[in-house]
Design goal:
heterodimer, A: 263 residues, alpha/beta, Rossmann fold, 2 domains, 4-stranded antiparallel sheet, 10 strands, B: 282 residues, alpha+beta, Alpha-Beta Plaits, 9 helices, 4 strands, 9% strand
Chain lengths: 263, 282
């Protein structure tokens, strides 16, 4: 609680009505579970761990901010989620897959059910917006006839239907990020993982992207978003996990639970 | 189908890199092809020399012709024997005069003995087999002596064996170098598309799906490199033949096809190694 008080005044985090109240989250609705996860990168200095004994749960449809300074472990948590990294100890469970037992082939299957977005958009520069979105369907063997309709729907969802044939260099940063979101959404993921998605955007584009994230979440997709942007965090009542030196120093859901117990 | 289209698109998207890969493979295979051509011509030359391996059994004077004919028939039935020729004293004299014209006057009368000249089948011209045939011919009572150039045959076979071993060793070395070069050029192609690969992995493409276009691209590159190498080797052979006034043989269709398949296999292997290494890292 000390860290929480230091970083964010408690008044800035009103209790989320439906999803973040831990007393309302049934165990069966838990979708992501971190159990005493420690991650040490092979080339890290002796004793330096990117994550240390991190445990938390995320329910279906929940929106969670991951905040904290650079190097706190936010991106490592996201990488562990899409199994780009494995924990040094502890276990990550996501949608029935365990980091301890998942096979390489199953990682591909898991990622088809995740949407992943990065600060640097990661678009293919020589392909148009619709080709970039279609790419995510082509590489998982979606029948060619089904692709145009789904691409069009995804681009409409992110408000870019009119720029389907534009190349990334012809789009603004915010628009490029929307293409990345369309690519992440085109497979109807159950969770959207966003690593600093507004890091390269101006205020206006940031607000637009955040609004888009809210809409995605309102439609039932869980969102895990790593961000430095405290204004965004404060502007909403979503759950916040604050990290520092690889440890969770504040969990707004835990704080809410304690507050309820006190009452 | 998508994998083939992606592979072909890769050629269009990076024409310079593709041309570099094809040229590199072509030059690797060209070196291999030149060496193969030298080996082929040495083999042909040795084969021609080998065809001259002959066993000559000298017949004692006054042997009845019926006895010689019967023996000739028997010898020609040996599995190792290609044909048997009876050379009479008169024919031997004539042959000596033709082959050694400077000594024409020395051969005045029929001083040379008649002989049975035995030619052996290909594959039966090695020293051990020749020796067996010689022993059988020597066993005939009317045969005075048998000559077959024992030392000469044994030298020829030693030379052939050395050429064979050197051919295989150098061929393997050239092939290994070619695979390494192909692997390195395809690695450049893989690295130039590392962003695309990382995105594919993020959206859930399997390793097999990612690998397939590269393997097809590698194989096509290998075949195209092989075709270019064949053309270069042919041109080199013609140019060398013209300057050295040397009649050389070129690869037949079977070896040419094998060369192209070899190029495809190297391209495939080089791609498999490069993509495999890259996928293990991402």
């Amino acid at each position: 609680m000390t860290n929480f008080s230091r970083s964010f005044p408690a008044s800035l985090f009103p209790l989320p009505a439906e999803v973040t109240n831990p007393l309302r989250t049934r165990p069966s609705s838990v979708m992501i579970r971190f159990d005493q996860v420690t991650k040490v990168y092979p080339r890290a200095a002796v004793g330096a761990s990117a994550l240390h004994n991190v445990s938390f749960r995320v329910a279906k449809g929940e929106f969670v901010f991951l905040t904290g300074p650079s190097g706190a472990g936010k991106s490592t948590i996201l990488k562990l989620l899409y199994m780009d990294e494995r924990p040094t100890s502890g276990e990550v469970r996501i949608s029935g897959y365990s980091s301890g037992t998942i096979k390489r082939r199953d990682i591909a299957r898991l990622r088809r059910r995740l949407g992943i977005v990065f600060q640097d958009f990661r678009l293919l520069e020589d392909r148009t917006a619709e080709q970039n979105v279609a790419f995510a369907l082509q590489v998982i063997g979606t029948p060619a006839a089904a692709i145009p309709g789904r691409v069009s729907r995804a681009l409409t969802q992110v408000g870019l239907a009119s720029k389907a044939t534009a190349l990334p260099k012809e789009l603004s940063g915010g628009e490029q990020q929307r293409v990345a979101f369309a690519r992440a959404l085109v497979n109807d993921p159950f969770v959207l993982i966003a690593d600093e998605p507004t890091g390269n955007l101006d205020d206006r584009a940031t607000r637009g992207i955040f609004q888009l994230l809210r809409e995605i979440n309102a439609a039932g997709t869980a969102v895990l978003m790593a961000t430095h942007n405290l204004d965004l965090v404060r502007s909403s009542d979503y759950r916040t996990l604050e990290l520092n030196h690889g440890e969770v120093v504040f969990d707004s859901a835990e704080a809410a639970r304690l507050a309820l117990e006190v009452e | 189908m998508l994998a083939i289209r992606t592979a072909l698109t890769a050629f269009r998207r990076a024409p310079l890199l593709s041309a570099l890969s094809i040229t590199t493979i072509a030059f690797s295979l060209f070196a291999f092809g030149l060496f193969g051509l030298v080996a082929l011509n040495i083999k042909n030359a040795l084969q021609k020399v080998e065809e001259r391996v002959e066993v000559r059994g000298f017949i004692a004077d006054s042997t009845p012709i019926e006895t010689i004919t019967a023996a000739s028939d028997e010898i020609s039935k040996y599995p190792e024997v290609l044909n048997v020729e009876l050379v009479t004293q008169a024919q031997a004299l004539e042959r000596a005069r033709t082959e050694l014209p400077e000594f024409k006057d020395v051969f005045e009368s029929e001083v040379l003995p008649a002989s049975l000249d035995v030619k052996l089948k290909p594959g039966a011209r090695d020293p051990a087999t020749v020796k067996q045939v010689v022993d059988k011919i020597r066993a005939f009572d009317f045969v005075d002596d048998v000559r077959y150039g024992e030392e000469w045959i044994s030298q020829l076979y030693k030379l052939r064996n050395i050429a064979g071993v050197a051919g295989v060793a150098l061929g393997l070395a050239f092939a290994a170098v070619a695979v390494i070069i192909i692997g390195a050029t395809i690695r450049m192609a893989v690295l130039s598309r590392s962003r695309e690969i990382s995105i594919m992995r993020l959206v859930g493409a399997t390793d097999g799906f990612i690998r397939r276009p590269f393997l097809i691209e590698g194989s096509i590159t290998g075949v195209l490199g092989g075709v270019l190498a064949l053309v270069l080797t042919y041109v080199a052979m013609r140019v060398l033949g013209q300057y050295l006034h040397f009649e050389t043989a070129f690869f037949d269709r079977r070896i040419g096809t094998l060369g192209l398949l070899f190029g495809a296999a190297m391209g495939f292997l080089g791609s498999a190694v490069s993509v495999g290494r890259h996928l293990r890292k991402v």
